[in-house]
Design brief:
Layout: H1 10-19, H2 26-36, E1 41-44, H3 51-66, E2 73-76, H4 80-93, E3 101-104, H5 110-120, E4 126-129, H6 131-139, E5 150-153, H7 156-161, H8 165-173, E6 180-185, H9 190-199, E7 204-207, E8 217-223, H10 229-238, E9 246-249, H11 253-265, E10 270-273, H12 279-290, E11 296-299, E12 314-317, H13 324-331, E13 341-347, H14 352-362, E14 367-370
Parallel strand pairs: 1-6, 1-7, 2-4, 2-5, 3-4, 5-6, 8-13, 8-14, 9-11, 9-12, 10-11, 12-13
Helix pairs in contact: 2-3, 3-4, 6-8, 13-14
This protein binds adenosine monophosphate.
Amino acid sequence: MTFQELGLHESLLEAISYMGFEKATPIQEQTMPIILNGDDLIACAQTGTGKTAAFLLPILHKLASKNSHKTSTLIVVPTRELALQIDQEIQGFSYFLGINSIAIYGGGDGADFDQQRKALSSNTEIIVATPGKLISHLNLGYVKFDHVEHLILDEADRMLDMGFYEDIQKIISHLPNKRQNLMFSATMPPKIRELASKTLVNPKQVSIAISKPSEGVLQAAYLVEDPHKPALIRHLLRDKPNYSRIIIFSSTKRQVNEIVRTLSGENYTVEGISSDLDQKEREEIINRFRSNKTRVVVATDVLSRGVDIKEINLVINFNVPGDGEDYVHRIGRTARADSTGVAITLVNSDEMFDFHQIEKLIEKDITKQKIPTQIGISPEWNPTRRKQNNFGRSKSGSKPANNRPKPNNNAKPQGSSGDKPKKKFFKKKKTSGTSPNASNTDK
Ligand code: AMP
């Protein structure tokens, strides 16, 4: 289906054509008529499906037709990176419309706060906010939400994982009762259904490929014990001289530093991203990666969600992510929209059980390979064995493929940004007030 067929505003069609989008993605095709019709919606869609444009385009279409210049749309998201990214996408799409927006997130200095305060009290049409920072502003009493007509909860499952359930309820209590509610989530656990039943009114439901990586990702696993992992990484990279953009995910900062050291020793242009770096430093690294000055980025989960870097050829999971959703999000860095990519996971004996849980979640048997004999001997595939800790319990407790850290409202949201406006030809029309230099806290 084309965007013309959806009946979008002329100026939006113009911006879409600048963006190079030729036709609607499946999530866009299914959700946009519902949103345009004014219905509530619960959509199960992962990042990489085009879900952001799926809700932005119909909302912008409505705002363009109304021209009311009041704060009419609130988009609540889990991380600052996602807030910045959505804000930039709004700026791109609304370039010919003159609709303004701001990203509200934590960690900035007094000047940032002041700029956010002004935007929140002066009818900025679209607010994209992380819950913690928005609550801080709401508590100060100047936020004008009387005219909000659209509430969008994006990556709702992630927000609940981060412990934002109560904050979301509190935010909703500040909104007019009569409004359109849209909820996007990669998964639909019971908590999400509960939030949906409290928030949405007779919602239409759309589900796109629940928790499954995009079709274009070629997935493989190597059975390899930890001491052999660095040598295998070197081997994999040597084997792929034509891959210009590679991300290696590891679970700890210490490992990130070790991998960076190993690869620098081999003369790769490689940089590490972890919470040790401030926002500005991370952005500089991402920008060097985007402009192909850095070939390999090694990162903790900082990068797994929210950051849109196109055309990543190879994602390597140095260890099996403890959570199936994180696996999907990590490998979702490749094969964005209509490109293809390769995702390789290094699985040691203790990680086999968890990896098998991920296979079940995504309903796919991933090819398991042995490491080259010059590196060492691969363990046999045995997904029934679970790692025992000192108390005789499995590493991951009773839900091995879902051992995310417990929600912690005071935790720094992970994330990096590097989010320079994606479309350079879109000059900013109105100030959006985002400050990419903020440090890394939401609350
Ligand atoms: P998202 O799922 O919102 O993170 O979007 C993933 C990527 O797909 C982003 O880079 C979008 O700019 C891109 N995208 C969204 N819609 C389309 C489309 N209809 N055609 C091509 N690319 C798209």
